[in-house]
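Journal club side-thread
Mid-discussion, someone asked how the predicted structure for our own chain would compare to the paper's figures. Pasting it here so we can look after the session.
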Amino acid sequence: MILSGLVGIFMSTNDPQWGNNGGGRRPSNPPDFDELWSDLKDWLGFPSSDKGKEKRRNNNGGGDGGEGDDAPRMDPRLLISIVLGLAFVVWAASGIYIVDASQRGLVLRFGKYVETTQPGLQWRLPYPFATHEIVNVSEVRSLTIGYRGDARNKNNKELKESLMLTSDENIIDIQFAVQYRIKDAFFYQFKNRDPDAAVMQVAETAVREVVGKRTMDVVINEERTGVTEQVSSLMQEILDRYETGIEISKVTMQNAQPPEQVQAAFEDAVKAVQDKTRQENEGQAYYNDVVPKAEGQAAVILEEASAYKERMIETATGDASRFSQVLTEYAKAPGVTRQRLYLETLQQVYANTSKVMVDAKGQGNLLYLPLDQLMQAGAGGTLARGANGGAGSAASSPQRPEETTRSPAAGSGVARGELSREREAR
């Protein structure tokens, strides 16, 4: 019925003979919408305006009857059907929507989540039965902690966010940048009232917790990479716990330093620490040079002492064994053993003495025998060299006032004879 009405309207307005009174054909007038609207109100029971009636009479040739009354008129029910049909088509088409490759569509039916649609041309029930929301899941969002805009500009700092307390009770000024994206559109859109603000709060909480467990030197100099990695891991754990549907992409430490008020003092402290480290390295180098040498000398001394100990023990053992043997022989022949011990003792004493004083009986002269030089002369030297040395020694040795000094060259024979007689007398 709707299609037939539309075709009739289209054919009547495009009739090539429309308006041509010749050829014995009745003129075919197109439908007048004012007239149709007036007919529609008459059909619905509303009073029609005089203007519409007058226009209808004019179209019918100025009379109430005759041929003009037989002009074609559209049924108001057909018009209503056409309008309703067009409205229905438009209403049904309002449920069509397009989802880009970087987006996801969330379909709600009577306000309740139904499904998540993938990229492409999609359709849902029209409003008010269903609605949809589009969420961009590939966009990388970012936020900053401790500053806004450029981190190098001091005027952009947010001290309320950047000042944090470390484990060694120092205050540190730190700035972070966080990049994140949406990994679950449903959680991001419906599980939290303001997920972006939640990310900001979680980031500040994670940074304060990680920094609060470390000292200032560790955060500033030693573990910058480790701090950012732990902050990223802790943030992701908290966001997953709250089902925000957000994935942390990257956490970057922009700046970490003491507050400006104590910057100079901190630099002095850093220089002092560097000097301390340098001196410790120098001391360690000196230690590595001196201690091994001292340990080596100590080891040598210990080895020598051990060898001396062994030698003395062996010597004492040998002396004790020899004494035991002598004691046994002394018990058998005391006189012979005593004389032998006496001679051996004198032999040892004279063997270690290079000068011998002989007092000749009855002559009153002190005779000096340079036995050391005599032995050297007898071994390979000349007697004259030994005599010259003996004379010099005799001249330098003390003498009694009443005695005279004899040179070895002049009285060597007499001295030898007297020594022989002395030994026989003893």
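Post-session note: Residues 2-92 form one domain.
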